[in-house]
Amino acid sequence: MLTLKQIYDDKAAIVAGLEKKHFADAEAIIDRVLEIDAQRKAAQQKKDNAAAEMNQLSKSIGMLMKNGQKEEAEAAKAKTAALKENIKALEDEQAAAEEAQTKILLTIPNVPYALVPEGGSAEDNLAVKVGGFKLGEKLQVLDQPSEKAFAAEGAAIALKDWPEEENPESEEAKLPHWDLAKQYNLIDFDLGVKISGAGFPVYVGQGARLQRALINFFLAEGNKAGYTEIMPPTVVNAASGYGTGQLPDKEGQMYHCEVDDLYLIPTAEVPVTNLYRDVIIDEKDLPIKNTAYTQCFRREAGSYGKDVRGLNRLHEFSKIEIVRIDTPEHSDASHKEMLAHVEGLLQKLELPYRILRLSGGDMSFTAALCYDFEVYSEAQHRWLEVSSTSNFDTYQANRLKCRYRRTEDKKVQLAHTLNGSALALPRIVAALLENNQTPEGIRIPKALQPFFGDDMIR
Predict the structure, then answer these.
(1) Considering 57, 78, 107, which residue would you say is the last residue of a domain?
(2) Which percentage of the chain shows pLDDT scores above 90?
């Protein structure tokens, strides 16, 4: 959550940033936070004054008794007792103000960086790079060298201005992945409905092997990039949900085990980032780089239509996450390294992709800057999101009390947290099946073949 220092240092910038995220009544809500903080400070000041007076009286009682001033001593004792009661009431008032203040702060989203484009929806996101296929002349400007992918503002195109002919390659009709899954006996959607319900597919034979191959490939690539593998729980307590910002923002999207007050994780970001809750890290140990494979669970309330067909939107799915804890000075470099890592995975899978810088209105509650990666589906003629890679600045760290101790002056301050999907499997599987279908079978990308154990699904 936002810190009071951030608000006091530049209230106008905070309000402007929240309005960029289309947060309703931003100025009024920030003013309410400051009003409550003034009440808290007033209660603190009164409490401090009463405590100082009580200390003085306590010191005087012994001297009054020694001098035989019994009545004065008894009066001082009575006043001390009254001051104690007053201090207790002021402590309660201060605690109530802090609770009310925190309750409001938890509902306020993170403030986006200046780099984040204006806009109220996905149509206002900027495509900063595309790759993986030969582009038409109109899009050549986006085909930049990797090291410049996130630097040139002039290379960005708003999605509302994206050319209609998105697929510059094949005109050949392609089967959608749900038909391919049935043809090659890879995924049984009906059996999943029988066992659990819609959105819980059963992977069979080569389909299950493809899932395992992708999981092992992504983890191996993460290991090569210096990420330490974690195997966390897939259920978390409410404190963990609040720590990374899923609660209270996405409470309705999470599966809740009410008896034990535990939540099924929507992503490994939640348990892995919470490893560092209430922890002070030495600066020399940063950046911390973790990766984890987990099953992920999302209720996806309100999802319908073509967006939920096949693997497009599931309630349970496999995903590999990368998480970093870093210093404020280095977090931008960390973010770019994470983006390059995710892009490298898509290049090795030989998939057509584009990278989007999300607009203020399309960003998550907790992110200060977010890039989405999408792969192109040749059968569905649409782009499928496979990764969101975000820098949260100090927003999560403040909730988590995740701090680091500076080497130079031993000062303790909030760290920056970052995370990204590397990668989510369902839509990767969909794109692999649809884009690699041949008369002989489904071609397996070269980088994945050692993990799958074959070059084709037949």
Answers:
(1) 107
(2) 79
Q: Is the pLDDT of residue 252 over 90?
A: no
Among residues 45, 75, 107, the one where a domain terminates is 107
Q: What is the pTM of this model?
A: 0.89
Is the confidence at residue 419, as pLDDT, over 80? yes
Average pLDDT over the chain, rounded to an integer: 91
SS (H, E, C) the chain: CCCHHHHHHCHHHHHHHHHHCCCCCHHHHHHHHHHHHHHHHHHHHHHHHHHHHHHHHHHHHHHHHHCCCHHHHHHHHHHHHHHHHHHHHHHHHHHHHHHHHHHHHCCCCCCCCCCCCCCCCHHHCEEEEEECCCCCHHHHHHCCCHHHCCCCHHHCEEHHHCCCCCCCCCCCCCCCHHHHHHHCCCEEHHHHHHHCCCCCCEECCHHHHHHHHHHHHHHHHHHHCCCEEECCCCEEEHHHHHHHCCCCCCHHHCCEECCCCEEECCCCHHHHHHHHCCCEEEHHHCCEEEEEEEEEECCCCCCCHHHHCCCCCCCEEEEEEEEEEECCCCHHHHHHHHHHHHHHHHHHCCCCEEEEECCHHHCCCCCCEEEEEEEEECCCCEEEEEEEEEECCCHHHHHHCCEEECCCCCCEEECEEEEEEEEEHHHHHHHHHHHCEECCEEECCHHHHHHHCCCEEC
Same domain, 257 and 194: yes
Q: Tell whether 92 and 127 lie within a shared domain.
A: no
Residue 179 lies inside a defined structural domain of this protein: yes
Domain count, the chain: 2
Do 316 and 415 share a domain, yes or no? yes
Domain containing 202: what range?
A: 122-457
Q: Give the per-residue pLDDT at 66.
A: 80
Mean pLDDT, range 416-445, rounded to an integer = 97
Looking at residue 167, what is its pLDDT? 47
